[in-house]
C-alpha cells in the first residue's frame, strides 16, 4: 500500500503497512491481505458465493473493474465490504475503492447501518523468479 496516497493509512487508528498478494487461476482469485494479521480469502470468478471460515465471498466483473464482496459477522453485527479493483499506470498500480457497511441492529429512529468509504493505492512489487 502506498500510505501517502491511501485513505486507510490516515485513519484515527492507522492500520500500519499493508501488502496484498493476489493469486489467480482460471476459476478462482485468492486475496491474501498482510498487515498485523494475515487474512486469505478465495473468490470464485464465475460469480458464485464461497465460504471462507465464516466469511462469505463473491466476485464479479463490472467492465474492466473487479468487484469483490464479503459478508461476515463481527460481535453480532453483519459487516459487508465491497472492494472495486482497477488497474492503472500500465498495470503497475491498483486503485481499490472500498465501502464498508456495518448493520448494528439498533432499533428506533434513523438508520441501523453505518457506511464508510475510502480509496487505497497499491504499487506492484517486483516478483522474484520462480525456481
What keywords describe this structure?
Lipocalin, single chain, 3-stranded antiparallel beta sheet, 6-stranded antiparallel beta sheet, 131 residues, mainly beta, 57% strand
Beta strands, count? 9
Overall structural domain count: 1
Helix content: under 10%
CATH architecture title: Beta Barrel
What's the CATH topology label?
A: Lipocalin
Note the gap between the termini.
27 Å
Give the biggest sheet: 6 strands, antiparallel
Strand content: over 45%
The succession of helices and strands, N to C, reads EEEEEEEEE
CATH class: Mainly Beta
- Count of DSSP-assigned helices: 0
Helix vs. strand class: mainly beta
Describe this entry's structure for a reader.
The protein has a single domain (3-123), classed as Beta Barrel (Lipocalin). The chain contains no helices and 9 strands. 6% of the residues are buried. The protein has strands spanning 19-24, 28-34, 38-44, 50-52, 55-62, 65-74, 77-88, 93-103, 113-123. Helices cover 0% and strands 57% of the residues. It is mainly beta and 131 residues long. It has a 6-stranded antiparallel beta sheet with strand order 4-5-6-7-8-9, with no helix packed on it. A 3-stranded antiparallel beta sheet has the order 1-2-3, with no helix packed on it. A hairpin with a 2-residue loop joins β4 and β5 (55-62). The model has no long low-confidence stretch (mean pLDDT 85). It is globular.
Amino acid at each position: 500500500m502506498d500510505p501517502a496516497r491511501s485513505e486507510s493509512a490516515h485513519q484515527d487508528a492507522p492500520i500500519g503497512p499493508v501488502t496484498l498478494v493476489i493469486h489467480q487461476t482460471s476459476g478462482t482469485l485468492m486475496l491474501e491481505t498482510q498487515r498485523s494479521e494475515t487474512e486469505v480469502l478465495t473468490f470464485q470468478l464465475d460469480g458464485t458465493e464461497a465460504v471462507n471460515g465464516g466469511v462469505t465471498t463473491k466476485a464479479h466483473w463490472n467492465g474492466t473493474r473487479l468487484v469483490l464482496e464479503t459478508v461476515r459477522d463481527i460481535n453480532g453485527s453483519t459487516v459487508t465490504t465491497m472492494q472495486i479493483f482497477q488497474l492503472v499506470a500500465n498495470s503497475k498500480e491498483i486503485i481499490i475503492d472500498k465501502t464498508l457497511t456495518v448493520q448494528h441492529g439498533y432499533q428506533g429512529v434513523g438508520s441501523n447501518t453505518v457506511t464508510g468509504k475510502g480509496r487505497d493505492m497499491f504499487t506492484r512489487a517486483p516478483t522474484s523468479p520462480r525456481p
